[in-house]
Fold this sequence. Notes:
The complex is a heterodimer of chains A (111) and B (115).
Chain A: E1 5-7, E2 10-13, E3 19-24, E4 31-38, E5 42-50, E6 53-56, E7 65-71, E8 74-79, E9 88-95, E10 100-102, E11 106-110
Parallel strand pairs in A: 2-11
Antiparallel strand pairs in A: 1-3, 3-8, 4-5, 4-9, 5-6, 7-8, 9-10, 9-11
Chain B: E1 4-5, E2 10-14, E3 19-25, E4 30-38, E5 45-51, E6 56-59, E7 62-67, E8 72-77, E9 86-94, H1 95-98, E10 104-105, E11 109-114
Parallel strand pairs in B: 2-11
Antiparallel strand pairs in B: 1-3, 3-8, 4-5, 4-9, 6-7, 7-8, 9-10, 9-11
Amino acid sequence: DARVTQTPRHKVTEMGQEVTMRCQPILGHNTVFWYRQTMMQGLELLAYFRNRAPLDDSGMPKDRFSAEMPDATLATLKIQPSEPRDSAVYFCASGLLGEQFFGPGTRLTVL
Amino acid sequence: DQQVKQNSPSLSVQEGRISILNCDYTNSMFDYFLWYKKYPAEGPTFLISISSIKDKNEDGRFTVFLNKSAKHLSLHIVPSQPGDSAVYFCAASSAESTSYGKLTFGQGTILTVHP
C-alpha cells in the first residue's frame, strides 16, 4: 500500500556534522512538507513544496537548514552544521488536497 | 506565536469512559480543522475533520465539536479503549492555506486509557 518513506529512521551524530534526511512521498502527491516535532512546539512546519517548487521555508533556520526536491520521488532536508538543539524527530508528509500523509519520521540526536 | 493550542499536555482516562481532548485557535481565518493520532515510532495519521460550516462531525466512537464563537474545538472518544492511547494533534487550515494543503498543528495531548 502507498506510504511515505523516510531514511534514516535514526541518526546519531556529533555537533558540527552534516545531516541529510530523505523522504519519498506517495506517488502522485504534489505537495511535500517537512515538520519537526518537539515537546514544546508540537509539530513545527519547517518547509513545504508544491510540484517540487518551494512554497515556504520560513520555519527553517536559514543559516544551517536547507530543503530540496531534486525530483518528484525524493525530498531532502539537510542540516549543516548540526547543533544539539536540532535533536528532534523530523517528519515528512505528502498530500494532494487537504489531508496529509506522514512518514514514520527520522529521530535525530546531535551530541 | 502559537495559533493552535492544546493546553492539556496529557489526559488519563479509564477504559469505557469518555475522553475529551480540547483545542483552541486564535486565527479567525481558520475554517477547516483536523485531528491526527500518533503512536510511538510512527508518523501522525488522520483521524477526523470538521469544516467551519458544521458544529459537529461524528465517525464511530469519535466526534469532533466546533464552537466558532469561542474558537474552540474538542474531540470526544466514547467509549475509550486502551488502543486509543496515543498523542492527539489538533490541526487547522484556512481557505488560503488549504489550497496548498498547509496545516497548523497544536502541541499535542498524550492520552492514556487505563484498562
